Amino acid sequence: MRTRLSALLVVLMGVVLVSLGVPLITGIASDEARTLHTDRMADLSLFVSRAPFGEDPGLAEVSALERDLQRYEELYGISVTVYDAARRPRFSNDVGSAELTPDEDAALDTALSGRLTEVWDRIEPWDTEPLVAAQPVVRDGDVVGAVVSVSPVEKAANRVLARWSILLAAGLVTMIGAIALADRLARWLLRPVERLDEAAHQISAGDLSARVPTGSGPPELRRLEASFNDMAVHVQGAVEAQREFVADASHQLRNPLAALLMRLEGLTISSGLPGVSQERQVELMQQALADGKHLAGTLDRMLALAKVENAGAPAAVLDVAAEVDERLAFWMVVADRRGVHLVRRGVSEAYARHDVGALSGALDAVLDNALKYSPEGGTVTVEVRDLPGGVAAEPVVQEALPIGGPSSAPMLALARAVGEASSEALPSGGGVEVVVSDDGPGVAEQDLPRISERFWRADSAEQEGTGLGMSIAKTLMERHDGSLEVSTSPTGGLSVHLVLPPPG
Q: Where the protein is mainly located, per its record (predicted)?
């Protein structure tokens, strides 16, 4: 491709040089012809003025004219002949044949008709025919004769050849420089393409870590390299996520599936034994059903995690406090059933930039985890904070909801009303933090960094689970520059911090 591009650039440069050179070459030949014609006509004017036409030309005038003609021929090698109106030669420095050539005859006719010979088109290096010029001799308004000159063109043709040679040499040097420049330009233009091609081959061969080094080439191709690298990063991430998903699925589903098959096999065997009661068979079937549900739940959570890792919506400015209140209204029913109090604290309005669907999913996963591990009669506190840099509204405090108390919707509406009456909330400028705290058993300090790992569960965990909830929440929050952090709450349980970037 580089050779073809270089050839194309060279051809274009050649076309440019030819387009400029042909007019220059033609102009040089025409300029030399005009110069020679002008010189000859000036010389002929001198001889015309001194031509002794009349009834009694003086001897001195005749002698002076003959002397000048002879001297002119010696200096320039140009023959000059003075003719009368009857086309008879009167004076001449030409010792050759007196017979007129066709060009001389035509020039003489032109002069005797009272006109000057026209300018020659051009003189070219290979021209050998002499140039003929003629001028009429006018006395008292009548044409009484003509002066005709025959000029050799060898010197003029040599001058044209010399100027053409200089021009062609300059064109040749320019062409050589153009070839070198075209090769360097083609290399510069195609170097990013070659790097892209090499990286694409490496990726197609299985090396997903291959990247295109940037920093040289046209801006458009540098942007293409950056886009290619971004695409390679996404492809590598997608492939690695797929591999991790397959590996995790095979690992996590193997044991539950084996247990389910064993229970089904035991159920099949027990059905044929006479000493097994119907109650025992029902118990075995319920255990098998529980294992199947656990297996289905694990698979559903894994598919949900894979979905949130590979899909997303664009970020938008949203009221985080309003979204928190909406999710609390949904989870209030679950909290009532489990005997857990929900407390809403913090500002009444807080604006951040994120995906509302991702925030809702993360809140659901965190609240589900908090309610699941909180003891009966425990409390889950949800606080919305404006981070430094924003203008915070007055805090809103929702008292603990008693078990069997008012429905969630009226109580949350009351919380919103208290916040609106207390202050005028302004959009946050430093981001928003949502803290979900519980008073459950908590996690050991050294295990806190592992909470968001896939399938990780604390050794002391008593509740059923897949270990994917916090991983899903972390993945959802990390979209659009959000984050999820876990710490120990003041009551001994967990505090999950969901941080969202500012709206600006």
A: membrane
